[in-house]
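pasting input
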Amino acid sequence: MVEAVLNIQQLCSGYGQATVIRDLNLAINRGEIVAVVGKNGMGKSTLLKSIMGYLPAFSGNIMLMGRTVANTAPHRIARLGVAYVPQEKAVFQDLSVEENIRLALRKPLTLADAKAVIARCFPFLLDRMRQRAGTLSGGEQKMLLVARALAVGAEMLLVDEITEGLQPSVIESLVKVIKSEREHSGTSVLLVEQNIAFTCAVSDRYILLDKGEIAGVGETSDPDTPMRVTAHLTL
Amino acid sequence: MTDSFARSIESSTSKPRAASALLRVGVGASVILSLLAIAPLVLDTYSVNVLARSMIYAAVALTVDILWGYMGVLTFGQSAFFAAGAYASALVFTYMGFSPQLAILGVVIGVGVAILLSAVVAFLAFWHGASALYASVITLVLPIVVTQVLFSGGTYTGSSSGLTGFQTIDLSVEQWFWAVAVLLVLLTVAAWVYTRSDAGKLLVAIRENEHRCRYLGLNTSHMKAVAFVICAVICAVAGSAYANYTVVVAPELAGFMFGTELVIWVALGGRGTLIGPVLGTVMIDYASAQLQGDFPFIWKLVIGMIFVSVIVAMPRGLLPLVFDAGKWLRRRHATQQQSKDREVRLLGLQHSRPITRTQSDVTALTVAGVQKRFGSLEVLSGIDFEAAYGEIVSLVGPNGAGKTTLISCIADGAQRTTGQITVNGHHIDRLPPEQCVRLGVGRKFQMANVFETLTVGECLQVARARWDKPSRWHRTGLCSLPPSALRVVNATGLQEDLGVPARLLSHGKKQALELAMVLALEPKVLLLDEPTAGLTKPERSLIGSILTELVRTENLCILLVEHDLDFVREISSRIIVLHQGKIVLNGSVDEVVSSDLVKSVYAGSSHEGARHG
Amino acid sequence: MIAPLLDIVTTAAILFIVSSGLLLVFGVMKLINFAHGGLITLGGYAAVIATILGLNPWVAVPIAAMFGAIVGLAMERVIVRPLYSRPLDAILATWGLSIIIGQIITLVFDRGVHFAEPPVRGVVSVLGEPYSSYRLILTAIALALGLSLALALRGTNLGLSTRAVIMNEDLARGLGINSGLVRCITFTLGSALAAIAGAFITPLSSVDPNMGIPWLINAFMLVLVSGSSILSLAVASVVLGGAQVLVSNYFGSVLGGLTIAALAAIILRIRPQGFAHD
């Protein structure tokens, strides 16, 4: 019996009165990496925000680490061991790199523990700890986001379109880091993506979201996957 | 086809109802007036004396209610205008003596000063982009400045002790009571008539959503300024009456404390109800006068506690509570009646202004070299394209490509950093949104953007305010819509909901209502930002067919931002692909669909992935 | 020549002390605490109590801090919390609280004027010019207060969380920061600072139940032109306080009394972000 880190049942959620996610079911096991793909506006980011507690669940249930968390405040979700990497401007530009990481640390973790993880995945950041995060390049900021999420020892990562605007070399290193961290600590990842190459390289399976509903699922190891998903994404 | 839209949709009996409402208020006012006529004969002189003063205050509180309760401008500064009137009269009487002509002169000077002051405040407080807090701050500074000016007048203004002992209009306390009572009732009825009229609904529209108002072509800053000046005039007249009646003026009249006291009375009575603030002011001021002697501090403490609880727990104030209780007793009989009272009958315009057909040689929209920066971040660069009448051009691209920013640049001349935009042959220069609307731009926002507390019919009336000058005197209950807007209303079933407040509509109907409101502007270039976001499939296809029909019959030019690519493919005549602030492709639907470039924009380096697969 | 300069410096210092609590609350919660004036009054009466009990005048400061913190905590829990989404109503409700504080003080003491013992009397000579030593001490206190606030925001974990909430509350919540708790602590601290300011300024003037109001308005205007930065508040205090001193000297204290409010209103009209750098 594999334990489900995340288990979503019959979830409906959205903004105000607008239902964006409709009757969604999804379970992610420990150590699993799952990608959500789909066109813009189909509810991918909404799904992550609902899990994180930023948006209300109109109906249905969300369980994290075996606990029911629908409509729980974001900071409580974070403290359960969930790290959220949002799509836009997610580093505090005016804080230093170190402060950005310290913010997310909860007892008993210390800065030294965090630095040990960073040394493993993005060692270049260790030389830049005192630098203002806003002065990092776009790619470096994204790496800082991932580093922060990993450094706090999260059991589950929610990652929203991390590859947008990144160079292929950076994307490659992200794939490497995420996969090795999964081997090392058994971290589960739910990521929202548009980049199919990245999706196929990093994740075990994918779900296709269309107008808030699951329109397809599959294994990324299946050689037809890129073709099928691409067909769905473009016009 | 056109004929069926031209006939009125709903037969309603709103005319007789409006008359009956007026009749009811007339009867009510007469009853109150007769009660007030008897009051001085029954009450002791002290009470009559105090109540006359309370009623003068009530007139000032009424202006706070119009500005704050209806229009959403929280003002602490009405005391300054009140003092302007009071001091003008007192100074005239003190230094020029008394005569009926001089009494009028006093009022005229007071009103003049109030107009001047309020115009300055309006200039400082109401401009595009000024926040509600900033406007309140300015109204807070005003009484401080005026108080200090009165102090610095030295012996001339009597400094801190003020002026007293001048000769004024010679009336007995009872006569004053009657005069003030008649004026207050007239003022209240006038305010009631105005706030209930079609034009009065614009005040509420400004409070609910000033942003939307501006994109409906209304110059809200100007409207707020006018309302503010008129309210200042009323305060000055009341101040003049106060000086004549009490024969004492002191700097406290201008003060911040009196300014906030007015707000407290209005909040307790019930903001946005007119009668609530009037009753609140009279009752609290009267009770204060009665209790101040015996329990001076306890009384103020109690008022403070009630005030805080009302603000926190019952922001609508106490009067609506009484109404609700009454309604509950009558078993909700009244609710239905009230909603019927707010119904609007739609009229179809025979023809929409045939702008597009005669001028079809002019390009609907030209965008040339448009660039937009936020600080050092370039969001749009070198955007060039044209769109003709009769076209649906779709803007697509990943998140953050700059689609909504581009729409904003077309709808508001102040947005873009550089570049030229022409709408129907006119440069938009740096025109604010309401002027762009005049050139023919209609913008529908991404999230449904309507007036939540107004009914569907009233929302449509507000949207038509630019063409059909709304009546200031009564609710016409009528709204003429061009065929396009009417078609949206009919097709989406909104005509059943004309009396329903917009906040109760489903998300889909709200989107449809906003679309109808924008079409009511009779735009030439229609900007639609994700009109189908959050809609169900049938709703999407309905909106799609309405849009294609609009373009066919009205020859509009539509620029559409959309994420739903199936929708885009179905209805577009052309597609523009935006990526990282640049146009990467501008072509027919087929060209774009088959483009490898577009695939890579949307799917990252998917082909590489396919090869490795 | 020296005296006006000292006046400008000490006036700026006093304005800074009086406004810092309001700035803290405005920065984190984006709402104006109109009970700030009432809390200043409360602090003033803490000094009166110390005098009545015959305590060392400096003891007034911790007493005031305690009063302010208790009232602030209760206020945030019961009244301010439901009003986060209604900033104009929050102004009104906190104003109502100010009235309540004023009336309770009036009931306990009376409407009359009270005096508190100053901790330090007399003058010292500054470059040959005799000057009130207490005003100079207040300048040192303002500097210490500004520095310790800046250090606390920079150095401590709570300060770091507070800055994160100021910059982007949603993002901070996603990192596990309990922004509700941060708001509560900030409000309590801001209220305590207001009361402390009241205790500090009391020896300069008399104490009455309305003493906080003129200070409230000046503090309010200063905070609006400063945004949420301690440095800009210091700059604003010097510029506007300096203007007040100059206007008072040349055009009389009556016009001096409206200088800060009028200037701030005009500054905000021209430059909505005021002295904040972006």
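fyi The interface with chain A takes residues 398-400, 447, 506-507, 510, 530, 533-534, 537, 563-565, 568-569, 580, 589, 592-593, 598-599, 602-606, 608-610, 612-613 of chain B (CB under 8 Å).
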